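Cross-posting from the chemistry board since nobody answered there.

I work mostly on the small-molecule side, so proteins are not my area. We synthesized magnesium ion and want a rough idea of how it might sit in this target. Sequence and SMILES are below. Is it possible to get a predicted 3D structure of the two together?
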Amino acid sequence: MHAERSSFLFGANSAYIEELFARYAEDPASVDPSWQEFFSALSGEQQAVLRESAGASWAPRTTRIIGVGEAGPALATRPVAATNGKGNGAAITADHVRSAALDSVRALMLIRAYRIRGHLKAKLDPLGLVPDMPHPELDPKSYGFVDTDWDRPIHINNVLGLGDTATVRQIMDRLHRTYCGSIGVEYMHISAPDQKAWIQERIENVENRTDFTVKGRQTILERIVEAEQLEKYLHVKFVGTKRFGLDGGEALIPAVEQILKRGAQLGIRDVVIGMPHRGRLNTLVHVLNKSYTALLSEFQGRVSHPEEMRGSGDVKYHLGASADREFDGTTVHLSLTANPSHLEAVNPVVLGKVRAKQDQRHDVEREQVMALLMHGDAAFAGQGLVAEALDLSDLKGYRTGGTIHFVVNNQIGFTTSPTYSRSGPYCTEVAKIVQAPILHVNGDDPEAAVHCARIAVEFRLRFKRDIVIDMFCYRRHGHNESDEPMFTQPLMYKRIGEHPSVQEVYARQLVDEKVLQESDVDGMVAGVRRKLDEAFQAAGSFRANKADWLEGKWAGITTAPHEEDRKGHTGIALESLREIGRGLTQVPKDFDLNRKIARQLADKRKLIERGEGIDWSTAEALAFGALLLEGTPVRLSGQDSGRGTFSQRHSVLIDQSNEQRYLPLNNLAPDQAQFEVIDSPLSEAGVLGFEYGYSLAEPNALVLWEAQFGDFANGAQAIIDQFICSGESKWFRMSGLVLLLPHGYEGQGPEHSSARLERYLQLSADDNWQVCNITTPANYFHALRRQVRRRFRKPLVLMTPKSLLRHKDCISRLDEMATNASFHRVLSELDTLKDDAAIRRVVLCSGKVFYDLLAERRARKIDDVAILRVEQLYPFPFAALGKELRRYGNAELVWCQEEPENAGAWHFVDRRIERVLGELGGKAKRPSYVGRRESASPATGSLKTHLKEQAELVERALTVG
Ligand SMILES: Cc1ncc(C[n+]2csc(CCOP(=O)(O)OP(=O)(O)O)c2C)c(N)n1
Ligand SMILES: [Mg+2]
């Protein structure tokens, strides 16, 4: 046993080393000083092993030492003893033993170098345009192995599965096959040992290839033929029509097929797909089973779902689709998410959808629902949203169990070459922020691409982490077919012009390897062409099935009614509110609550019991609590949302002795729905996109995203413009998402004052969402509840308060939230003033400035100026406002806002108010403006100036004549 252990330590040279050690043990000076050094450096345990195994067997032996006489010059690092070469066995042998040990060390270094950097030598580019990247670490010479060393056996202890010993030649051959063929693997940056080891074993044991059966290879070719023939057909039949063809990247299709098929075997039941323009039509047809007839009828100019064209509609390569596919008797639901042109913007949306679906299925292990994201090379390298979405991948509140990323790397972005579009060596470097393995693969080798797909889905399901396939390919035509690529990449396109298609390359390989005959390939091509021709004929009379937009989780939801009143039933019984209040203000017996928080909770409890003085955050908690008790989950995410940016929410209580978290809202009743509040990463677009995606897949939860300050929401502008604002109009996809945007002029400078209300108002049309600037806790309560207590869903953009969170007047009574109470779009005069007919001015406003106006009016005891609040700006409450204004027939009208004139609601409301006034026929014909003057910056940086401006505008608003 000990002999075995010593052989484990020293490999094939163990017997000789034992001999030396025995001598050393008797008299250290009897061995070469280098051996003295070597033995003395051994651990106690290692010395013991040697002592025991050497002791019993000690007797001079002749030992065949591996590599005797074959050490190359670079290996002989230490001058050998004078006896070297003179037949003195001990001295020569000792030297060579060391040389052999060095051989092993160096071979292992070489192997390790290939594991790290072998991808640099992989044959990834079908066009052969990427210059060879020789790297000294991949050259055996760098390790001292010269040409004559290549056939000497070296002990490598079964590394690479090559047995106990292997020659440099064998090692290099294995390394090249595994790491430098059609696949280049990057995985040594992964720090988790199990993940790294899994990838290593998965690729090294099989020289990084799958031995496909004949049937398997034929199927791969069939998929390639279908993909290629579809593109060719469209190219010829619809010359110059944009299709963003997959030509050159056809291996995507069998690879995706493999992800789905293998995924189904491993338990996947639902895949949410996000992808760009390139190859989308091919994916729709060959992955999502859209019929050729439907596609061709769209190319002929027909709209596939006429009833959806109520809105603006969208171009065909943006539309979503869904399908159920069978794989070996298992059904997998596929949904391709609709997306805008904005590349990569769909990524977080897809992730949010996946998370919602996992929640719905109680897929806690995250192995039934999975995201598959496809990317272009330029977009993947360039768009910041890629990093934002990747960053979500292992966060508790956003985790989806890993995404498979597939980059269709055609080595160009529109007209821009990679050297101009990224600084790193690959377009996939960004994925290393989550330590994802990256499989680069040559798209001209479809089997390699399918093999990578298989590894990817196995890895995803085993480790629940992201993985990337980067398929090097090319784009046969210009960016959108009618585009001329020779203007900008003449050499590349000359090469492409001469390059056989993927189908040709792979069919040739299979014919050469006698897997099939040329006539079989011709048959496949003819078969696909025939199907396309038949579909083309049938397309003229094609009628699409009715769309299924409002099925599944959306069953029971309708499109929004046109009538103005859409309050929903939002009030709840007073006693229930009190009950929720009790739950909100208590903690478990042994919970070590922060003393200040304890005091606040006690105060809050008293106010709820008394039924008055309910502040903003309490109203919010009551609204959440009521929904949870009714079975509606609530999900709120944003930066620091648990506590609240303004220390107002405290929805997560922290035990002061052990930092345990306690969420009162999750402890209201045993059968309540779940409250999820998440402190988000410091991202706007990524997180907002995610929550929007969640809301798309789950209409029966209240989903909210909160900006730290509304000012920062424009970091997510593409998500707001392209999805939230226009998603229903473009794709008939509803969302009940709430955006909480802290807004208000309080002297905090240009970036902590304005959520840019004006922008949301400018984007308002076609009943696309609701924009509110609410002033009372009760109205907030109802606004939140009506999001999920009506039969339709619309996003809610809400300006939320900052200082008002603690304002003595910004409070509500509990009965304002009770049964029969509801949301008010316009709030009428609060105080008792002169008779309506004696009112000389009506000040209309929205949001926080109301409290400034009210305080000043009360201070100055003005009783002939009424103040009305427009709580909902869009849809604009024409009738409700008319009803209020009718009372003040003799008054002039002022619109007062604290935002600059080019901002806030002014430009949106003035014509609308004019319309209301026109219908009333009173004294006022139009409102006049009171507020800050036009300004490029949203707010001043000086508190003093702010206060002066604020006082002035309040003064002007209240001064008549
Ligand atoms: C965010 C964004 N910026 C710019 C564009 C315009 N655009 C459309 S395609 C394209 C090139 C994309 O290159 P790549 O990601 O490599 O995909 P490919 O077309 O090569 O498949 C550009 C710049 C866009 N669609 N989205
Ligand atoms: Mg590209």
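Reply from a structural biologist on the board:
Welcome over. Reading the output above for you: Confidence is low (pLDDT under 50) at residues 1-14, 55-92. The first strand starts at residue 154 and ends at 155. Happy to explain the token format if needed.
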